[in-house]
Amino acid sequence: MTAPQRTDLPLLFTPFSLRGMTARNRIMVSPMTQCSAEDGTLLDYHYGHYTAFARGAAGLVCLEEHAVERRGRKTYGDAGLYDDKHIPMLARIAEALRALGAVPGIQLGHGGRKACLRRAIDGFVPLDAEDAAKGEVWWEAVSASAKALAPGWVVPVPLDAGGIAEVVAAWAAATRRADAAGFDFLEIHGAHGYLIHQFLSPLTNDRTDGYGGSREKRFRFALEVAEAVRAAWPAAKPLSFRVSAVDAIEGGYGIEDAIALARALKGVGVDIIDCSSGGIGGVPTLRGTRTPPGYQVPFAEAIRKGADVPTIAVGLIYDGPQAEAILREGKADLIAIGREMLVNPFWALAAARALGVEPRYELLPRTYSYWLNKRRAQTGEA
Ligand SMILES: Cc1cc2nc3c(=O)[nH]c(=O)nc-3n(C[C@H](O)[C@H](O)[C@H](O)COP(=O)(O)O)c2cc1C
Q: Is ligand 1 within 6 A of the CB of residue 315?
């Protein structure tokens, strides 16, 4: 028998269903590359890192971007799903997340021209002779056009029709591996200046064939990827697409383009749009210290209303009341938390306390809640 739906809960703590998936609440851990994989394979470090968020009561834990091709990695530390050898560790993590009550999710991506870089914590700058001496050499990168991000960065080889078909097939193969590993939520990384975004943005796509020129032609690669992923992903499992809602650079792509793209993606079976921004010209997402809280929430709202599709809000969302207001005001359906989860993997518990959700310790595993409830009864803790 299922428990009756509670009506006294803040929206943040109500279950969220999409296709056959139900998350226990609307808190998602945003994908965050750790740049610590070995030839794409995650390590015990990642097992501890990800399971902490599930123990901390997040509803959906979305693993970091996994490259669908080896050449689609940005750094030698990127995670990957371009080989069956990656599956066993991912299956261990997915199973543990599920056992702890969270939906296991994963993001797939391809860096395109943002390749041959040092790990993020080493500056995310092109590999140099010092790196080459350690065996970390440049490889051939691909993109929509032969345009380097900046002087000194790799000049990518433009994908021809056969090359595009090969990359689309790699997306489908990685999707099948994600399903085999037991993930129930998959996100396509279409943002932050990576390969899909390189096709979408007029700043990085100057093709004159069927994949460049008009907006529809620039959208074509993203839609082919989404269609191939949807076909390889079970119908009962939801599919998300992370978009950079605006390039925020002169001559770039804007919110109206993102709304049109979201509509087209919905048409090929994408269920929810994760609304980020920027990255086409430089370091992705991480903005200056003066960026205001919730700065990307207006994008989630505009796409939700303009394309009539569920959205995920992300970016400088700090606490439960801020997250709850976004949901109450109808601006998004899920709240993704990135860096605050690094501050406190038990972010959901803190949000529950701030929003007065009781009995709050019941959100945690029984091996924790038993002792915390007992302490509370003994001390009269508020
Ligand atoms: C260490 C780190 C790694 C990240 N890696 C990814 C990634 O793999 N995929 C992605 O779409 N965004 C990535 N991001 C962006 C986050 O998912 C998120 O959108 C961003 O940090 C803003 O949210 P926040 O203010 O809650 O951190 C990363 C951010 C950080 C801090």
A: yes
Q: Separation of 32 CA from ligand 1 center, angstroms?
A: 5
Question: What distance in angstroms lies between residue 239's CA and the mean position of ligand 1's atoms?
Answer: 19
Decide whether any atom of ligand 1 lies within 6 Å of the 314 Cβ: yes
Residue with tokens 């123990």: 55
Kindly give the confidence (pLDDT) of every residue in the chain, 382 residues in length, as a single tens digit, with 9 standing for 90 and above.
Answer: 455 566 689 999 999 999 999 999 999 999 999 999 999 999 999 999 999 999 999 999 999 999 999 999 999 999 999 999 999 999 999 999 999 999 999 999 999 999 999 999 999 999 999 999 999 999 999 999 999 999 999 999 999 999 999 999 999 999 999 999 999 999 999 999 999 999 999 999 999 999 999 999 999 999 999 999 999 999 999 999 999 999 999 899 999 999 999 999 999 999 999 999 999 985 545 455 588 999 999 999 999 999 999 999 999 999 999 999 999 999 999 999 999 999 999 999 999 999 999 999 999 999 999 999 999 999 999 9
Gyration radius of the chain's alpha carbons: 21
Any idea which fold 11-379 has? TIM Barrel (3.20.20)
**Would you say how long the chain is, in residues?**
382
Q: 316 in ligand 1 pocket by Cβ < 6 Å? A: yes
Peptide bond preceding 238: is omega within 30 degrees of 0, i.e. cis?
Answer: no
